[in-house]
Amino acid sequence: MRIVPAERLHRLFYPQVPVVVVAESGGVIGAAVCVSVMAVSSTPPMVAASLSTPSHTLELIRASNHFSLNWIDYSLKASLDILGFRSGRGTKNKLAMAGLRDARSELGVPYIAEAAAHVECVVDTIQPAGDHSIVLGRVLRAEAMDEFDEYWTFRSYRPILYLGSLDGHGRYVTLTQGAG
Prior knowledge:
Elements: E1 19-25, E2 28-34, E3 37-41, E4 46-52, H1 56-64, E5 66-71, H2 77-85, H3 94-97, E6 102-104, E7 110-112, E8 117-129, E9 132-144, E10 161-166, E11 169-173
Antiparallel strand pairs: 1-2, 1-5, 3-4, 4-9, 5-8, 6-7, 8-9, 10-11
């Protein structure tokens, strides 16, 4: 065994499936890649996501009180580096900047049109946690591609597994391919 330095502790949790958090306020769409996401309650359905406190997307969540969580396929992994390593501040639509399209359900919460699944939420609370903030959301609506039936079958959906970053670029693998 060897000592893991505190600044590398988070790497013990990798690989993780990255989820893209999307929010909109005043016609500005922001998006951030998040690897610290979880379901926290079944009744009522609630989720939590940890976002960097200075994140522009977190500012949009605070302003709009809504957000979505989006799972994307490995075929779209190039979009993750743009969403995860470039600021959207000053950009009208960060999804478009990453080559993705935004969509909305009848609830009006923006999500990624190409997503394999998305969950639309209203903010319950935002809790500071060191250099991040935990956004707790009540689920309003969830949608997944047809292959999801209680569980993912992975017939066509190839989840991205994030291994960490190196020089401002993520390292990714999927269940059926090597590192990309």
